[in-house]
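User: Before I run my own analysis I want an independent prediction to cross-check against. Here's the chain; please return only the structure tokens and, at the end, one sentence I can use as a sanity check.
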Amino acid sequence: MFGGAISCFSKQRILLLLLSNLHYVQAKAVLTIYPTSSQIFSGESVTLRCNIQRGEVTDWEYTWSKDDVDFLSRKHEYEIREVKISNSGDYWCLGTHIDNGTESMWSDAVRLTVTALPMASVKASPRGPLYSGETVTLQCDISDYRDWTYLWHRDNQHLPKLTNKTTPIYLPDQAGQYQCEGTRTRRPERTYLSSSLTIVVAALPKATLTITPNPAYTGETVTLTCSVGSDSGWRYTWYKDNTNKVVTLSGRHSTTGATFTISRAAESDQGLFWCQGEIQSRSISSIISDPVTITVKERPVAVLTLQPNWPQIFSGETVTLSCDIQGGREIEYAFYNSGKLIYTKTEPEYRISPAKNGLYTCEGLQKTKGLKHSQTSNAVQLTVLDNPQAVLSVSPQWLNPGDSVTLSCGVKESSTGWRFFWYRTVPYTAGLLSLSNSSYSVEPLSGSGTSEDSYTLIPAGPSHTGGYMCRAGRGDPVYDTLYSEPQFLCCEEKRNSIGWRLKRYREKAVESVCVSNWGSIAGSTCTIRSTYTGDSGVYWCESGSGDIIYIFCYTVGILILESPPYPITEGESMTLSCTNRYQETNPNTKVDFYKDGIFIRNDTTLEMTIPAVSMSDEGFYKCKSNEGESPESWVTVRGSIVSISVLPRLLCGLLVAFPFLLVSIVLMVKCCRARGLCSTAKSLQYELPSDNVIEQTESSV
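Assistant: Structure tokens:
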């Protein structure tokens, strides 16, 4: 029976076991984090616990996982004693039954978030370099939370007596590296330890004084600058003559920050200067600077000169302005025209080509800073005149064969620096210079010209009869004047007059015998009818062999100014007469006299007398009436020692008048019967009969 009962019991147990297995549910792990606060701070202790909702804790072995990475731990608790930021993450746990090896389900993920501790920082006041004897205040700042107790450390040693947020230290004894941190009774219970702040005792700085410019010139602005390291908290004191005498501020003396300015420097500003820095809020003074001497002197004088220094400068000439400054080293020379800068260079010369009108000055500038170095120079007025024209005179103009003839050349507007070049007019010749407004050429008498203003023909004879011209040149490069108007030399010698013929030399050309285009020949008579101004010129009788027998000048015009045919010496009397060719039929009631184009007087006697001439009376003269005006005549005045010739501008030559007037002139030519005598030097001018005929017969020769 007993046996049967056991058997029955065993069957029931087995059945129950089978039934229980049919209803088995897998256990689940539950993960919990302690402490349960919402914030876990770095450095705190954290415990993670895994509970299986079946059986005892000891019935299971445990597996832990962080961020899907398993790590070895069989205990149901996982402790992190000093949690770090890196411990933050998602955690799971799993249980494995020790007896039957069944596993629980993984727990739900639990996130662990670790919060950093508050930061502490140290700052010092005052900031910047700290000096011996100063008191420095240290302050520990903690940005988060309150109720902190402050702990101070110096050179990694705890200072137990310092517990306040701010604490004073005294230099130099308490210099070093300082750190601080905070503690409190509530979480978070402490802060991180701050970074180190090094407190160093610096030596007192020495002030440095600089002065610009130095030396200075009177009237200039001088700036003194004081420097004490790089600290901007310094204020400055300035001393003059000694370190106990503080500079007194005035209208010319002012201070701004680290600068002391002297306006309109004067000699009284000269002397020794010092400066010193001071931080008033800290009672700190720098070491006083070394003394610096200020020198104030007059600016150097600039002298501007014109080279070449001719009284007149003409259009196209080249001039050089020279700026002389004593002590002009390391400077630039500035040139101005009417106050406007036109040229700057290290050389003291300014070449102007071509010359330009203007009022020029110069001054020196400091090469490095461009400040004014010298006084402004004297002004040089440069007035550029139009192209000048040479003026030629021939003396004497009528002469005996064998006499010497002097050609004199001058420049009307100027008499300085010229070299003169001499020419003879000839019919147009290829290869020789031909003037643009003429059909004749000019042949040089001298190749390189002469420095003298005269050229002598020795001896002169009939072969020298003709026109002469000159011009002048000067400077480098050479500047040439315009050519003078031609002047004519007349010389005759008694020769055999058989087969003579009449020729003429006008402005336009040399023409041969009397021909139909300008006259008509009948036997020994050449007739010019309906004369006009173009017929003015030199006429001569030429023998069959080509010898010149007689020369005379023929001028077409209404008014003629008669001037003395000889040089005028200072102190002599000179009379100019204005003649009207038609005086009998159309007399002048009044004429005006001009010199160099300027009216000087009028007269009803048709004459103007200068009782005693002077050098200022030299020039061009002409007369003018309601009938017209005469050609200009040049009068030269010389000293009593030198013989001077009259310089007619167009003696026996090209005189301009009104071409519409018809003039009848008969030139009665008589050959000199006395051996070696020439005609009078004065132009032969005769009235013609009404038939406007020029007649010259063989019998009159």
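Sanity check: Confidence is low (pLDDT under 50) at residues 1-6, 14-20, 493-497, 641-701.
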